[in-house]
Design brief:
- The structure is a single chain.
- It contains four helices and five strands; from the N terminus they run αβαβββααβ.
- β3 and β4 form a beta hairpin.
- A five-stranded mixed sheet has the order 1-5-4-3-2.
- By secondary structure, the protein is of the alpha+beta class.
């Protein structure tokens, strides 16, 4: 009986070793992205400003009147160069297409830099 209790406690402690670092890393990542966004957010960009960022090495997109700098994500994009089709322009239609998993809707906020001027 004591052996079973000790085994359960050790199992619980070992599982914490594997689970806890994931939560800690996740929280730290969010803080870094949040701090970065605070430093780089401008209130509004006009379409001309956004259109200048239309390359693989400098890629901004517009989604629902919000501007995102997706440059760090271009090389990771599972759809390859499809992300560059609307670089420097409105990507709303393509972004909400059936090819995207729901996780992209959370991910995109990490790249938010400001709003589009009206």
């Amino acid at each position: 009986m004591e052996l079973m209790v000790v085994t359960l406690i050790l199992g619980f402690l070992l599982s914490l070793l594997f689970i806890a670092p994931r939560f800690i890393k996740s929280d730290q990542t969010k803080k870094v992205h949040s701090d970065t966004n605070i430093k780089t957010v401008k209130k509004a960009y006009n379409k001309t400003e956004v259109s200048l960022h239309n390359k693989r090495t400098d890629c901004w997109i517009i989604i629902k009147e919000k501007v995102y700098d997706v440059t760090p994500y271009v090389e990771e994009h599972p759809g390859g160069d499809a992300i560059l089709v609307h670089a420097g322009d409105d990507s709303t239609e393509g972004f909400f297409g059936p090819q995207h998993a729901t996780r992209v809707f959370d991910m995109i906020e990490d790249f938010y830099i400001g709003d589009l001027e009206k």
